[in-house]
Specification:
Layout (H helix, E strand, L loop, with lengths): L15 H9 L15 H10 L5 E6 L4 E4 L19 H4 L4 H14 L3 E10 L6 E13 L5 E10 L1 H38 L3 H22 L14 E2 H9 L11 E4 L4 E2 L1 H20 L9 E9 L2 E9 L13 H13 L3 E7 L2 E9 H4 L2
Helix pairs in contact: 5-6, 6-7, 6-8, 7-8, 8-9
């Protein structure tokens, strides 16, 4: 009885999808040559790499031809499978100036390169990303000790790094908010004491101001106080400005805060951003600016200028701050990010001898969103 002929297995003998791709490629068209001519140490390294569960890529020879396993393939997104068997410079072009020196260091010196949470810039899904990896790049040597390739064992840590950064920013913002709350309550106590002739009236006035402060915070952070339904989808700039500044209105000094402008409609997203920017500006005025002075004044005006919305915040009698600060605080950075990124506008600070003048300009189209 004849025995059916079974061709001998082809190298590589195991390794999943990438092993099948390696077997199917015409390696004679590459600098590595046909698989039959590959040196033993290259085949040994590939045999160890392909079945491994760790994310591994190997760059071979002076062109750094890329070979990798199934675990590594998702880390390069749409570059797979075309990157397999090609010089690294072709498919890692956007980070080549960063990656190439690391590979040369291993290839030329035989030194292992190790780093945790190493940042890289990559375009693996059709758009730019800043990603992070734990990396260990080690030399692959031949029998004589010459380095012919670089074995890169990596582990993407982007999700953890981003989560930790978000947590850090959240803690920083929480600390910033707590400091601001104490500063604002201190200011509200001062405002209320000046206009209340009796302790009972003082308590009533202070409660009213604290309630107004809570409403302003709900506008700046809809739903954060537990009542998401109270945040309107659409309002007006006038309503926003009045709500944000109401806690600082002094009945004994009514001209302290003046607001002038039309009832321009503002959408939910833009309204939240604008409310938060105004809230941060008012807080700074209470802590350092005109509202920290007994006779300080604040004037807020806004209008439409062709296709743009323009709001001007002007402080008078702010003797505490007469020059730009030497460093930017968290609130200032937050306000700038809101105006430039969320509202698509620009923010201009004009530090005058009598106080700060702040101008916010944004497209009217973005105000309605």
């Amino acid at each position: 009885m004849a025995v059916a002929y079974e061709p001998p297995p082809q190298f590589p003998f195991e390794g999943g999808e990438t092993a099948e791709i390696i077997r199917s490629l015409d390696w004679s068209r590459t600098s590595l040559g046909p698989i039959s001519s590959w040196p033993a140490h290259l085949k040994s390294a590939i045999s160890l790499m392909l079945p491994a569960r760790a994310q591994i890529v190997m760059f071979w020879g002076p062109e750094f031809v890329a070979l990798y396993n199934d675990a590594y393939a998702p880390t390069i997104g749409v570059k797979h499978p075309k990157a397999l068997g090609r010089p690294a410079r072709e498919y890692w072009a956007e980070l080549w100036d960063d990656l190439h020196p690391l590979l040369l260091r291993v290839l030329n010196t035989g030194e292992t390169v190790f780093a945790e949470d190493r940042p890289f810039y990559i375009e693996r899904h059709g758009y730019p990303e800043n990603v992070f990896f734990d990396i260990s790049y080690s030399p692959v040597r031949n029998e004589a000790g010459k380095v012919d390739g670089v074995l890169c064992i990596v582990s993407e840590t982007t999700e953890r790094v981003v989560a930790e950064e978000r947590q850090r920013l959240l803690l920083q913002e929480t600390n910033h908010r707590l400091k601001n709350i104490f500063a604002m309550i201190d200011a509200l106590i001062g405002f209320s004491a000046r206009s209340a002739p009796t302790p009972k009236e003082f308590a009533q006035i202070l409660r009213g101001r604290l309630a107004a402060l809570l409403r302003a915070k709900e506008l700046a952070r809809p739903g954060i106080a537990g009542d998401a339904a109270s945040a309107r989808k659409h309002t007006t700039v006038d309503a926003l400005v009045q709500a944000i500044l109401q806690p600082y209105v002094d009945d004994a000094f009514p001209e302290r805060i003046r607001t002038i402008g039309p009832a321009l409609p503002v959408g939910e997203t833009a309204g939240t951003g604008l409310a938060l920017a105004l809230h941060e500006t008012a807080t700074n005025a209470v802590k350092y600016g005109a509202l920290a002075q007994l006779t300080g004044l604040v004037r807020v005006t806004w209008n439409r200028r062709d296709d743009d919305f323009q709001l001007e915040w002007a402080e008078v009698g702010s003797s505490a701050v007469v020059a730009p600060p030497t460093s930017r605080g968290f609130g200032t950075i937050l306000t700038e990010n809101i105006v430039t990124k969320q509202l698509g506008g620009k923010l201009e600070y004009n530090w005058q001898p009598d106080g700060l003048k702040l101008t916010i300009t944004a497209p009217m189209a973005r105000l309605a969103v």
